[in-house]
Design goal:
With 166 residues, the chain is an alpha+beta fold. It has seven helices and six strands; from the N terminus they run H-H-E-E-E-H-E-H-H-E-E-H-H. It has a six-stranded antiparallel sheet. It is globular and about 40 Å long.
Length: 166
């Protein structure tokens, strides 16, 4: 069990002095690592009206750079994250392959499980926080940690990043 109090205190200190969006996203990344760990961490902003998502933060800039947009895929993942607004969880590469066309790259990075946490503000999906790790990593206990302790910080970071970017 992570030291939740210390992780939240560190997040609070980092977010309180974040001079830019990248620093705010790094604080969220550090909190996620302290809570459950993730080999790959990213944040995708969502423009539902335009049907695109943009990577706003990535822990692997070589394989998943922060640039450009990609079309939002309408599949089972879309139903869970966009329509039902609940975390999407896949704990095998086979499950990931069913929804993400880049599953081979994901697998090559040692990631065979994923959680995509929707960030909803004002009844609008504004982003997803994406945590990837080894096969079977996202147990029910880890998913609970993400839902209970990462959801509100993710909302704060997305609001702050938007404010710092304008």
């Amino acid at each position: 069990m992570p030291n939740l109090e210390a992780a939240l205190r560190d997040f609070n200190l980092a977010i309180s002095s974040a001079p830019n969006a990248e620093t705010a996203f790094k604080a969220l990344h550090a909190l996620a690592n302290a809570l459950v760990g993730a080999r790959l961490f990213s944040v995708m902003t969502v423009d539902t009206d335009a049907g695109v998502a943009r990577r706003a933060y990535s822990s692997d800039l070589v394989n998943y750079p922060v640039s450009g947009t990609k079309p939002i895929q309408h599949n089972y993942w879309f139903d869970v994250v966009h329509l039902e607004r609940r975390p999407f969880v896949a704990n095998t590469i086979e499950e990931i392959a069913g929804v993400f066309p880049d599953y081979q790259l994901i697998d090559s990075l040692g990631c065979q499980s994923v959680v995509n946490l929707p960030v909803v503000l004002g009844d609008k999906l504004v982003a997803t926080v994406n945590l990837l790790d080894r096969d079977g990593h996202f147990t029910s206990e880890r998913l609970s940690m993400i839902e209970v302790h990462l959801t509100t910080p993710a909302k704060l970071v997305c609001l702050l990043a938007d404010t710092l970017s304008t």
